[in-house]
Amino acid sequence: MNIKDKYISFFESKGHKHIPSAPIIPENDPTSLFNTAGMQPLVPYLTGKEHPLGKRLVDYQKCVRTNDLDEVGDTTHHTFFEMLGNWSLGDYYKEESIKMSFEFLTKELNIPLERLAVTVFAGDQFIPRDEESVGIWKSLGISEERIVYLSDNFWIAGNSGPCGSDTEIFYWRSDKEIPQVFDPEDDTWVEIWNNVFMGYFKDEEGNITELPKKNVDTGMGLERIVAVLEGVNDNYESSIWRPIIKKIEEITGLSYSDDENKKAIRIIADHIRAIVMISGDNANVTPSNTDQGYILRRLIRRTIRYAKKLNINIESDWDKELALIVIDEYSKYYQELEANKDKILTVLEQEKIKFNRTLEKGLKEFEKVVNAMDGDTINKDNAFRLYDTFGFPIELTCELASEKSLKVDVDGFKEKFKEHQEKSKMGADKKFAGGLSGHGEIETKYHTATHLLNAALKVILNKDVHQKGSNITPERMRFDFSFDRKMTDEEKKATEDLVNKWINEGLEVSCLTMSKQEAIDSGAECMFIEKYPDTVTVYKIGDVSLEICGGPHVTNTKEIGTFKIKKEEASSAGVRRIKAIIE
Ligand code: SER
To answer: What is the biggest distance separating any 2 CA atoms in the chain, rounded to whole angstroms?
Structure first.
């Protein structure tokens, strides 16, 4: 039996009820993006509410920690991890909790006593020194030299909430001789389990009061305990990671044992598992530019970049193959993964298409920026352009910079980002205010002409041309699009002719309503997919154009008149602008 199953059945045998893992996003806590500990979904019960399954609970909880995302790549950090936990809600307290933990470690997992050591709370003005736990540990055979009092043995999630002193259990992770005296500063001793005696509540002002009922909250990180017990010093060498790493080795033809590849392989393995767990959760996260969606986007983009480093053919199905391994490994414990399989694969696919469009160009642009700069800091304008035009999350730019021992003006970037957001919000508000009612007949014609121009540029220039903005007045239209050079006169003429050809063909304009996913699947054009609601309207013009858009449009292209390009010029780096009229 594996440790996860052993843990659940051990605590079930001690009267605990197995509760399912809560979704990956906390339900009632807008201050955290993800659940970062097993106790988080249980806060209402730890502060007094009765749990329907009683006072003794056990589970394994899906957790995601993103504050040290950049550390991922070493031997111990994981974005997604599972936390084993058991709880007493006003039932047993220190003695039973410590005894059960000890029994599980020494009897179920057969850890020899000499490999164990513990820390306990040293006391402060609110909570006394934890002599009680020391007495219990000693009664179990832990010697005095293996017990250390520490003042930071106090646990709270964030700044306020249920909290209390804790006792932490350490394991000697080495074949070297085990020292008699425990030194918590020595990294060979690794913490494997934390038993929190949650008897207090800390409010926003920092006042600590006793809770009406005293609880126990324990947490044991699965990845660590498995690695420790399997005797490996690198978590990624444990059985948990073996199938994923094996698949990466197969896809790349590289070996994990080769030091050169380790970091990239770990990042890909870690991130692909986190991507599957986040996008496969019923909380329904999709890549976006905010909150959980942004984390998902960053994870996918970082995975793609590292895959590129290992010379994986990005266009191939490497990402799907890896995701399927993760789904296969974990769906026994999290059935939602099987049910959400298609969604997971679609998320990967769509995000890859988006990023791949600009990654190569963005990397070239990054090199250009680096070659042209004085000093060692990438300025805010360049960082913002890499984000805005090439889809580089700021963290990616920072990572690329640090590989060259350069810095990035992140504060400046953030300011610019905010300004930009405010501007586009103002733009959106204005557009909305202008909206349907403000749209006269002539603007409606221009609006449909915009779609035709967008489609024509893809034919005449190339299919990677995308709309970057547009502006319509009763006198003219302006259309910004991604393209990196001046258009020739022939290209302008050909574009104009094609738009007029479509106008003269009298193509029908129809408005369809569909789910965002269907729209994406049918290849509908749009500027910022994440900004749209789940159900969208898509305008179809004959067989030449399909765009997500709120309208309004003419019903037949004949109504438009004659289309004329007046000017084509640079708008910003990598973006051109066409001014056109209809007569
Ligand atoms: N809440 C504690 C922790 O996360 C014990 O579960 O370490």
So the answer is: 94
Neighbouring-strand partners of residue 218: 195
Is pTM beyond 0.85? Reply is no
Residue type, 561: G
Crossing angle, helix 318-330 and helix 341-372, to 10 degrees? Answer: 130
DSSP per-residue codes, 141-176? T--GGGEEEETT-EEESSSSEEEEEEEEEEEE-SSS
In the structure, what pLDDT confidence band is assigned to residue 469 with cuts at 50, 70 and 90? confident
Q: Is 155 in the pocket of ligand 1 (CB under 6 A)?
A: yes
Distance of CA 71 from the midpoint of ligand 1 (Å): 21
For ligand 1, the distance from its centroid to the CA atom of residue 163, given in whole angstroms, is 10
Angle at 303 between CA 298 and CA 308, to 5 degrees: 130
Are the CB atoms for 180 and 60 separated by under 8 Å? no
Ligand 1 contacts CB of residue 161 (under 6 A):
no
Q: Residue by residue, what is the 3-state secondary structure of 282-295?
A: CCCCCCCCCHHHHH
Q: Is 219 in the pocket of ligand 1 (CB under 6 A)?
A: yes
pLDDT, residue 439, reads 62
Element (H, E) at 531: none
512 or 437: whose pLDDT is higher? 512
- 3-state SS string for 212-250: EEEEEEEEEEHHHHHHHHCCCCCHHHCCCCHHHHHHHHH
- 89 Cα: distance to centroid of ligand 1 (angstroms): 15
Of 96-100, 185-189, 415-419, highest mean pLDDT = 96-100
Q: Is the confidence at residue 387, as pLDDT, over 60?
A: yes
Contacts of 374 (CB under 8 A, 6+ apart): none
CA pair distance 423, 511, nearest whole angstrom: 29
Residue from 226, 225, 253, 258 nearest 242 by CA: 226
- Segment 169-188 mean pLDDT: 95
Token pair 């540990």 in the structure block, residue:
137
Residue 474 reports pLDDT greater than 70: yes
Alpha-carbon distances of 60 from 282, 361, 571, rounded to whole Å: 17, 43, 53
Type of residue numbered 257: S
| Among 130-134, 189-193, 409-413, 476-480, the least confident range | 476-480
Which of 93, 100, 82 is closest to 38 using CA atoms?
82
pLDDT tens-digit map of 394-440: 989 999 999 999 999 999 999 988 888 776 555 444 433 322 333 67
Q: Which of 126, 201, 214, 209 is nearest to 163 (CA)?
A: 201
Residues 6+ apart with CB under 8 A from 6: 108, 109
Question: DSSP 3-state helix, strand, coil percentages of the chain (rounded to 5)?
Answer: 45, 20, 35
pLDDT of residue 528: 63
- H or E element that contains 321: helix 318-330
What pLDDT shows up at residue 229? 94
For 433-542, list the strands marked E by DSSP: 467-472, 477-482, 509-515, 535-541
What does the block give as tokens for 248? 């990466």
Instruction: Report CA(60)–ligand 1 centroid distance (Å).
Output: 12
